């Protein structure tokens, strides 16, 4: 990874132009600002609220993305500025619906052994002095059931423990070893109807969310706006500000420092801008300027850490050899093609939905191409043992070739 050369930038201006200057720097998008004072006071609270809003909008955008591939869609008729609120309402309704489905599903399973009894009839029986009660006995059989005299008992199931009910004309009774079961909030028939209604409601909500997902670009724009607001408030709270003047400091890539000065002049902002080279004791931020080949290996390179600003950048040594050695390890053209096709399919389906996945897919494709290349020159295709091996450039097969060639190649590359 090539490390961009950085330039230190200082800006001082009138306090009345502070907001205008910060917005301009955000639009320019080239300045890495550093805090001058700690974030505190009202701006700290506002920055915290902005970060919470950013997290909320980001989570909404990610959750709605899961419904992007749904075929049945209902167009979202809410305006762009209220799209996030519509998405949040639909997602909350979906969560409530699914929670209720789980509760009713468990209730239906519990009521299934008892059948569809009428709760109103049971209440009328109790008003006339006939007491009906449901019971459960864990790990018991019918032979273990002991019912007092004058009490009618009927067993309904032995699969989920011993389930039975009693009918008493002499008031409530107690059964040793048995636990009384409360009456449900609805009968089995009504419970199943409510589950069906919730299933239809879930389909409608899925369609609404799929319709919102078609406008994902609006939600992404709102995430970007929320991120800009959060960064703006954080930067506003950490710059140096007095009654009449404000000051800020940061870094800008050396290649565009002159363009930044021209933009400041074009905006006619009353700013005093000074730039200079980094001092020996300063540690500028790291900005990578990678070509298309090195960008493919970025996810793996970052696992090893990043070099400091003035250190040697090893990426141009690391990237080609890492890709080549993966090809040597896999070393089969057939498996390399399969690897490439799988990576391509995953990239097409989820590459734009999962942050950072596109870089990983590019890395996998580079590995796959390396494996195909090594497999072709070594004559390895799904491990098939070809009889005619005259076309093989580097035959390392055991018995017919020289497998030590890879060892010599690795030693030579290691010396380089």
Could you outline the blueprint of secondary structure elements for this entry?
Elements: E1 6-14, H1 18-28, E2 32-34, H2 41-65, H3 83-111, H4 119-127, E3 131-137, E4 152-157, E5 162-168, E6 179-181, H5 188-213, H6 216-238, E7 240-241, E8 245-253, H7 257-267, E9 271-276, H8 292-296, H9 298-303, H10 315-330, H11 333-350, H12 357-378, H13 404-415
Antiparallel strand pairs: 1-8, 1-9, 2-8, 3-5, 3-6, 4-5, 7-8
Helix pairs in contact: 1-6, 2-3, 2-6, 3-5, 10-12, 11-12
Structure characterization notes:
- With 416 residues, this protein is α+β, with helices and mostly antiparallel strands.
- 51% of the residues lie in helices and 12% in strands.
- The strands form two sheets. Strands 1, 2, 7, 8 and 9 form a five-stranded antiparallel beta sheet that branches. A four-stranded antiparallel beta sheet has the order 4-5-3-6, with helices on one face.
**Helix content range of the residues, please?**
40-55%
User: Would you report the number of β strands?
Assistant: 9
Q: What shape does the CA trace take?
A: flat
Major sheet, described briefly? 5 strands, antiparallel
> Segments where pLDDT lies below 50 for 5+ residues?
none
> Approximately what portion of the residues adopt beta-strand conformation?
5-15%
Structural classification: alpha+beta
| SSE string, helices as H and strands as E | EHEHHHEEEEHHEEHEHHHHHH
* Radius of gyration using CA atoms only: 35 Å
Q: Look at the structure and give the mean pLDDT.
A: 85
Cα(first) to Cα(last) distance is 19 Å
Please report the number of helical segments: 13
């Amino acid at each position: 990874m090539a490390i961009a050369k950085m330039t230190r930038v200082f800006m001082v201006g009138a306090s009345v132009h502070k907001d205008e200057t910060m917005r301009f720097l955000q639009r320019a998008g080239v300045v890495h600002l550093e805090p001058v004072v700690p974030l505190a006071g009202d701006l700290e609270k506002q920055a915290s609220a902005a970060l919470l809003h950013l997290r909320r909008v980001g989570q909404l955008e990610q959750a709605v993305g899961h419904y992007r591939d749904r075929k049945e869609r209902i167009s979202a008729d809410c305006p762009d500025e209220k799209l996030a609120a519509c998405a949040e309402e639909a997602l909350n309704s979906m969560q409530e619906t699914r929670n209720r489905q789980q509760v009713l599903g468990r209730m239906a399973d519990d009521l299934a052994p008892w059948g569809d009894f009428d709760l109103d009839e049971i209440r009328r029986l109790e008003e006339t002095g006939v007491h009906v009660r449901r019971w459960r006995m864990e790990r018991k059989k019918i032979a273990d059931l002991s019912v007092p005299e004058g009490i009618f008992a009927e067993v309904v199931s032995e699969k989920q423990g011993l389930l039975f009910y009693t009918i008493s004309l002499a008031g409530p009774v107690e059964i040793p070893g048995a636990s009384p079961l409360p009456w449900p909030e609805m009968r089995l028939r009504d419970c199943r109807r409510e589950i069906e209604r919730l299933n239809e409601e879930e389909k409608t909500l899925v369609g609404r969310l799929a319709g919102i997902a078609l406008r994902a670009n609006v939600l992404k724009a709102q995430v970007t706006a929320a991120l800009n607001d959060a960064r703006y408030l954080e930067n506003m709270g950490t710059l140096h500000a007095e009654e009449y003047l404000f000051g800020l400091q940061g870094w800008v890539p050396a290649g565009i420092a002159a363009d930044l000065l021209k933009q400041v002049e074009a905006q006619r902002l009353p700013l005093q801008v000074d730039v200079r080279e980094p001092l020996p004791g300063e540690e500028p931020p790291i900005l990578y300027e990678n070509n298309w080949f090195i960008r493919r290996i970025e996810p793996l390179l970052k696992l090893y850490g990043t070099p400091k600003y003035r250190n040697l950048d090893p990426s141009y040594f690391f990237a080609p050899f890492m890709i080549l050695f993966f090809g040597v390890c896999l070393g089969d053209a057939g498996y390399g093609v399969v690897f490439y096709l799988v990576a391509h399919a995953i990239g097409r389906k989820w590459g734009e939905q999962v942050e950072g996945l596109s870089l990983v897919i590019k890395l996998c494709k580079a590995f796959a191409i390396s494996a195909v290349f090594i497999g072709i020159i070594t004559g390895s295709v799904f491990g098939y043992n070809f009889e005619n091996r005259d076309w093989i450039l580097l035959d390392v097969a055991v018995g017919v070739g020289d497998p030590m060639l890879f060892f010599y190649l690795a030693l030579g590359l290691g010396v380089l």
